[in-house]
Amino acid sequence: MSSFKKFTDFLFSKQSLRYMCTSHFWGPVSNFGIPIAAILDLKKDPDLISGPMTGSLIAYSLVFMRYSMAVTPKNYLLFGCHFVNEIAQLAQGFRWVNHYYSSDKKSKEIEAAPSASST
C-alpha cells in the first residue's frame, strides 16, 4: 500500500473527519492567523510594534500552551499554534526592546542633539 493511499485513508477516516468537525481542530487552525501575522511583520519597521500588545500576546500564548496540555484530550494542535506564536512574539519583543532601548540608538540621539554649550 502506498504512503499516499495510507495518508488519504487516514485523512478521510471517520475518526479524522469527526476530529475535524470539533473546536479542538478549528480553534487552533483559526488561531494560526496570529503567529502568521507576527512572522510576516518581522521585516516591518520596529516603530510599528506595540510593546504592550506584544507583551500581552507573549503572556497569552504561555497561558494557552499550558491550557492545551491541561485539557482532556490534550490538544497538540493548539499547543503548536501557541508555541509558534510565542517564538514569533518573543522575536517581536526583542526587536521592540532593541529599537527603543538599545544603547546604539541613545548614543545616536545624543550625538544628533544640539549641545547646550554651543549657544
TrEMBL record:
* Organism in which the protein naturally occurs: Candida maltosa (strain Xu316)
Q: Does the keyword DNA repair apply?
A: no
Q: Which Pfam families match?
A: MPC (PF03650)
Q: Where in the cell is it found?
A: Mitochondrion inner membrane
Biological role: Mediates the uptake of pyruvate into mitochondria.
- What kind of membrane protein is this, topologically? Multi-pass membrane protein
- What is this protein's record name? Mitochondrial pyruvate carrier
- Identify its protein family: Belongs to the mitochondrial pyruvate carrier (MPC) (TC 2.A.105) family.
What is an annotated GO biological process for this record, any one?
pyruvate import into mitochondria
The upper taxonomy is:
Eukaryota, Fungi, Dikarya, Ascomycota, Saccharomycotina
